[in-house]
Amino acid sequence: MNEQPTLFGDMPVTGGSTANGLTWAIIRYIQARGGQAERINVIGRPITARHGGREYIVSWAQSHMTVGTADISATIGGRSVKIEVKVGKDRQSDAQRRYQQSIEAAGGIYYIARNIDDFMCWYNQTFGGR
Fold this sequence. Notes:
alpha+beta
Protein backbone atom coordinates (compact mmCIF):
# COMPACT_ATOMS: atom_id res chain seq x y z
CA MET A 1 0.00 0.00 0.00
CA ASN A 2 1.44 3.37 -1.01
CA GLU A 3 0.34 5.56 1.87
CA GLN A 4 0.31 9.30 1.25
CA PRO A 5 0.92 11.37 4.38
CA THR A 6 -1.75 13.79 5.51
CA LEU A 7 -0.19 17.05 6.69
CA PHE A 8 -1.03 18.91 9.87
CA GLY A 9 1.14 21.78 10.96
CA ASP A 10 4.64 20.97 9.78
CA MET A 11 4.31 17.26 10.54
CA PRO A 12 3.03 14.58 8.16
CA VAL A 13 0.62 12.08 9.68
CA THR A 14 0.98 8.51 8.47
CA GLY A 15 0.62 5.15 10.10
CA GLY A 16 -2.91 4.19 9.21
CA SER A 17 -1.97 0.75 7.92
CA THR A 18 -1.23 -0.73 11.38
CA ALA A 19 -2.99 -0.32 14.71
CA ASN A 20 0.26 0.82 16.33
CA GLY A 21 0.95 3.39 13.60
CA LEU A 22 -2.59 4.73 13.71
CA THR A 23 -2.49 4.94 17.51
CA TRP A 24 0.65 7.08 17.50
CA ALA A 25 -0.60 9.26 14.62
CA ILE A 26 -3.78 10.02 16.59
CA ILE A 27 -1.84 10.82 19.75
CA ARG A 28 0.48 13.19 17.84
CA TYR A 29 -2.50 14.85 16.15
CA ILE A 30 -4.25 15.52 19.47
CA GLN A 31 -1.07 16.78 21.13
CA ALA A 32 -0.29 19.09 18.19
CA ARG A 33 -3.62 20.81 18.88
CA GLY A 34 -3.01 21.32 22.60
CA GLY A 35 -4.86 18.26 23.84
CA GLN A 36 -3.48 15.63 26.16
CA ALA A 37 -3.37 12.05 24.90
CA GLU A 38 -1.68 8.85 25.96
CA ARG A 39 -1.60 5.23 24.94
CA ILE A 40 -3.13 2.80 27.40
CA ASN A 41 -1.35 -0.54 27.74
CA VAL A 42 -3.25 -3.29 29.52
CA ILE A 43 -0.99 -6.32 29.13
CA GLY A 44 0.20 -6.24 32.75
CA ARG A 45 3.77 -6.16 33.97
CA PRO A 46 6.53 -8.64 33.26
CA ILE A 47 7.82 -10.99 35.96
CA THR A 48 11.51 -11.54 35.33
CA ALA A 49 14.16 -13.97 36.50
CA ARG A 50 17.92 -13.90 36.15
CA HIS A 51 19.81 -16.84 34.70
CA GLY A 52 23.42 -16.88 33.56
CA GLY A 53 23.79 -13.13 34.05
CA ARG A 54 20.79 -12.32 31.83
CA GLU A 55 17.28 -11.31 32.74
CA TYR A 56 14.33 -13.10 31.16
CA ILE A 57 10.59 -12.55 31.22
CA VAL A 58 9.11 -15.69 32.73
CA SER A 59 5.47 -14.63 33.05
CA TRP A 60 3.16 -11.65 33.21
CA ALA A 61 1.39 -10.27 36.28
CA GLN A 62 -2.25 -9.51 35.68
CA SER A 63 -3.06 -5.91 34.87
CA HIS A 64 -5.41 -4.06 37.20
CA MET A 65 -6.80 -2.00 34.31
CA THR A 66 -10.50 -2.13 33.46
CA VAL A 67 -11.27 -4.90 30.97
CA GLY A 68 -12.14 -3.37 27.59
CA THR A 69 -10.26 -0.10 28.22
CA ALA A 70 -9.76 1.99 25.08
CA ASP A 71 -6.35 2.24 23.37
CA ILE A 72 -6.05 6.01 23.84
CA SER A 73 -7.16 8.17 26.75
CA ALA A 74 -7.30 11.91 26.03
CA THR A 75 -8.51 15.21 27.37
CA ILE A 76 -9.55 17.64 24.64
CA GLY A 77 -11.08 21.00 25.44
CA GLY A 78 -11.79 19.82 28.99
CA ARG A 79 -13.66 16.71 27.80
CA SER A 80 -12.74 13.12 28.59
CA VAL A 81 -12.21 11.25 25.30
CA LYS A 82 -11.52 7.53 24.87
CA ILE A 83 -10.42 6.26 21.46
CA GLU A 84 -10.44 2.62 20.41
CA VAL A 85 -8.21 1.85 17.42
CA LYS A 86 -9.43 -0.78 14.97
CA VAL A 87 -7.63 -1.54 11.71
CA GLY A 88 -8.69 -3.93 8.98
CA LYS A 89 -11.20 -6.56 10.10
CA ASP A 90 -10.61 -5.91 13.82
CA ARG A 91 -13.90 -5.45 15.74
CA GLN A 92 -14.89 -4.42 19.28
CA SER A 93 -15.12 -7.17 21.86
CA ASP A 94 -18.10 -7.45 24.20
CA ALA A 95 -15.94 -6.00 27.01
CA GLN A 96 -15.04 -3.02 24.80
CA ARG A 97 -18.71 -2.39 24.01
CA ARG A 98 -19.53 -2.44 27.74
CA TYR A 99 -16.65 -0.02 28.39
CA GLN A 100 -17.94 2.30 25.64
CA GLN A 101 -21.40 2.30 27.23
CA SER A 102 -19.95 3.15 30.66
CA ILE A 103 -17.90 6.06 29.25
CA GLU A 104 -20.86 7.50 27.34
CA ALA A 105 -23.21 7.04 30.32
CA ALA A 106 -20.77 9.07 32.43
CA GLY A 107 -20.76 11.91 29.87
CA GLY A 108 -17.46 11.04 28.19
CA ILE A 109 -16.80 10.77 24.47
CA TYR A 110 -15.91 7.43 22.88
CA TYR A 111 -14.71 7.08 19.30
CA ILE A 112 -13.65 4.09 17.22
CA ALA A 113 -10.82 5.12 14.88
CA ARG A 114 -10.27 3.09 11.72
CA ASN A 115 -8.00 5.48 9.76
CA ILE A 116 -6.34 8.85 10.25
CA ASP A 117 -8.39 10.77 7.68
CA ASP A 118 -11.75 9.81 9.22
CA PHE A 119 -10.34 10.50 12.69
CA MET A 120 -9.17 14.00 11.70
CA CYS A 121 -12.57 14.76 10.14
CA TRP A 122 -14.38 13.57 13.30
CA TYR A 123 -11.96 15.50 15.52
CA ASN A 124 -12.42 18.76 13.60
CA GLN A 125 -16.22 18.40 13.55
CA THR A 126 -16.34 17.53 17.27
CA PHE A 127 -13.79 19.99 18.61
CA GLY A 128 -13.65 22.66 15.92
CA GLY A 129 -10.03 21.96 14.99
CA ARG A 130 -8.62 23.10 18.36
